[in-house]
Amino acid sequence: MVKFKTSKKNTALSTRAIAAQVILQVLDQGKSLSALIPEVQNQVKSQDLSLLQEICFGICRVLPRLEHIIKQLVDKPLKGKTRIVHCLLLVGLYQLLYTRIPAHAAVDEVVNATTSLKSDSFRGLINGVLRRFLREQDTILANVDKHWQTLHPDWFVNRLKKVYPNWREIIEANNQKPPMWLRVNQQKNSLETYRSLLQAQGVESEVADSSCALRLLQPLGVAQLPYFDQGAVTVQDLNAQWSALLLEPQNGELILDACAAPGGKTTHILENAPQAQVVALDVEPNRLKRVYENLTRMQQKAQVICGDATQPEQWLSQISDSAVQFDRILLDAPCSATGVIRRHPDIKWLRQDADIPQLVQLQSQILQALWALLKPSGTLLYATCSVLPEENALQIEQFLQNNTDAKLEPLPFDLPDSAIGVQFLPKENGGDGFYYAKLKKLF
Predict the structure, then answer these.
(1) In the prediction, which pLDDT does 12 show?
(2) Which residues are catalytic?
(3) Which residues are annotated as a binding site for S-adenosyl-L-methionine?
(4) Domains, in order of start, for the chain
(5) What are the per-10-residue average pLDDT scores of the chain (443 residues)?
(6) Which end of the chain is more exposed for a tag (fewer CB within 10 A), N or C?
């Protein structure tokens, strides 16, 4: 990552340069925004961070449309070392189309960003392309937008078409900015009490069909949420909140939260069963830092272990009584994350069709490995943030065929008798795409 010097004079300029650098790493190096933004956020002023995020996430959300526009305006593709110039054009076009930044300022700031990126020789090209777009905007957009654009990779659209008659609705929901959902800590406040606290600060919210979920009508920073630092509330998607509710943890039980980072599900389990012994497991040390942070903020305790869920023998001895099997296991399995695209739009350009079979195999390995750690009559809740059947219902169907000691448990939803688990799809002002299947170990 290139670090840019900033000053009072050129902070805005540097924000555009950093945005272009971030987008370059997403598109050409396969890095995620969730990893890149924390790396660079200290290089911009705090008041510019929201702009950086808006530009980077926004470009990933509408990338094909911006790419079509560039093809109309640039004769030869910008490749190799000039790819950063291509990314600056993406930054400029996004600002002109999707932000309220005055056009002249948007153009000037992107043109001036070439200095930080040692691309001064392209100042004229960037200036000319963006100003031509402004002059010919109606004609260019009429040509670019004459056919409906999914703004998704073809492989994913084709998979949706094979499974969902309403695939266009899923695509449209993915293309929206995500709603902001809160999970109210029932140990501290009732839903209505916390909603009143929000209203007292002029923050409006809506109640969902859940005991602890509120949707903010306008997203805001966590620092503005009443008693956030004291653990009164957590930012968590509506459908993600079902994980702890469907697991039904009980006080005194030994519970494993597998693939636990960043810890939202771990803390929810402890909100519902404060006296449970919870083990939070994840394979990535850096992500476990977030688990510790969330436990500290929520004033909760859990045993946090860094380990591979496919290799329990490598970490099981760290538990106080490693011979004891778990009463309940929550497996939030590694997946394609195709249900949370609106929240992480870079997934569309990071994930490939060939990844799906590999993920399915990994999920199967984890599921089988953890099943051996579950006591008889114990419960395992399998969860993903995917909308692809191969990772969800088909995965569980195969597991049930291979394990005669596994029984599919009913879920509290209106589902067909033939349903294997429940598949939530992303909905505007609703929850993200999630899947759940509840399994009981018979013997």
Answers:
(1) 40
(2) 385
(3) 259-265, 282, 308, 332
(4) 15-145 (1.10.940.10), 237-441 (3.40.50.150)
(5) 41 78 97 95 90 97 98 94 97 97 96 92 97 97 95 98 97 96 96 96 90 93 95 97 97 97 97 97 95 97 97 92 86 98 98 98 98 97 98 98 97 95 96 98 97
(6) C
Nearest-angstrom CA–CA distance, 408 and 325: 20
Tokens representing 347 are: 């997934």
Res 322: pLDDT: 63
Let me know: does 122 contact 74? Beta carbons within 8 Å: no
Cis peptide before 219 (omega within 30 of 0): no
Q: Which residues are annotated as a binding site?
A: 259-265, 282, 308, 332
Q: Residue 324 has what pLDDT?
A: 78
